[in-house]
Amino acid sequence: MTEQDKTLTAAEAKGLRTARELEGHLVWLDTITPAALGVLAIASGIYTYLGVSSLLEDTGAMSFFAALAYSVAVSVGIFVFWSYMLRLLPAMRSAAGFIGLTISTIVGSVAIIAMSSWLNAAALAGSAAVEQHLANTVRDYQAGLEQAHEIALSGQALGREVQRAAEAFEALADQERSGDLSGTAGEGAVFRVLTQKTEELRNLQAQIEAQQPLIDAAFEEGNEILGRMRALTVAPGSVEQRSVAFSEESVRLAGVIANLNQYSVAPLVARAAEDLPASVVLPELDGRNASVRDAQSSTIASVLSALDQRGQTLKQAADDVLAMEPPQETAYNPISSADAVIKYADSFVPSWAGAIAIDLLPAVLVFVLAITQAAIRSGRDGLSIEETLTLSDLRAAINAMKDVESSMGVADAEIRARGAASAPPATPTPPAPPRPKPKRFDAAE
């Protein structure tokens, strides 16, 4: 390998610097991530406890411990789940592993929303949601009261039709008395028929007029009850206690609306209109001669025809009132704060967003960490270990080698010491015999 091959390119050096910088940031972030995750889990558990408490009817010790146990389980589950995801998903190098853990993250997030987020939303906006339920119920009752009042007043308007019919037959009776109708003055058979129908219509008109005070009183009472119900909707204090009083007022208002429906005279007018031509009691013709009796008979036939026409007119007017859409039956159904938050979720989007965000915010951290780890791997891919070593890494490696050499030297010394201690003692060597001195010879010899 040439010297040029060993030199990093500018892009590789830049990627390596970026990877080292990101690793430094992650080292610092790892010190605060568990604490932050624990705070989020505890906060979610607290709001979950408040939400569960609102669902439990009993307020004894068992309910307290049940809500506490559930909230603790939620906190532990959130902390453990996101701890797994923060460690495992960013470390995935294969596409299959990353996709699998991503799906697991989505499934876990749905489970967290199901077991915690909706309860958090109930704790955040439960009272406001119940108050909105009360306000919507007041609106429905008001619409029902106004519709019933309108139908009742439309029925009262039939009284004018009845009055005109009565006045018309009364005028005909006056004409008959003066002889302008049948040609014979007096109060004969024709006069009695006209008088009979005039009295029937007057009696019907009196019945219609008698209903007006009842209608006015019922409508006034209904508005008073609606005023008290609106006050309960925004009154201070516990919404549960206000709901009880609200329920009592709603029962009274339902009775008022039912009475208003019964005060409508349209069915009475419709029946009277049908009976108007059919219930004529024909008197005996009392003319002095045949020509007068023929005139009376002809006039009575004309009167019956007029009665039939007038009856059809009244019947049509009464049918128009009966065809009006009746008020929808409204009944107040008490609702819990959790159910109210779900039912009116579109009105509490910020509360839902906050409740879900406190549980799923770690998911953002998971994907941020995954992207960061991918960037680190991208900066280090294709580089050998020697090329990625920093000065601190080299110093640490040298110190580690020194420690290893020192440890090996100590180990060798201990082995030698142990070997020397276990060797048998050496046998002493006997002294060598003295060597004989050489003889000296004199020259003489």
UniProtKB/TrEMBL annotation:
Q: What keywords tag this UniProt record?
A: Membrane, Transmembrane, Transmembrane helix
Renumbered residue ranges of the record's region Disordered:
415-445
Going by the entry's taxonomy, the superkingdom of the source organism is recorded as Bacteria
Keyword match Signal: no
Question: Which intervals carry biased composition (Pro residues)?
Answer: 425-435
Chain ranges passing through the membrane:
26-50, 62-84, 96-119, 352-371
| Name of protein | DUF4407 domain-containing protein
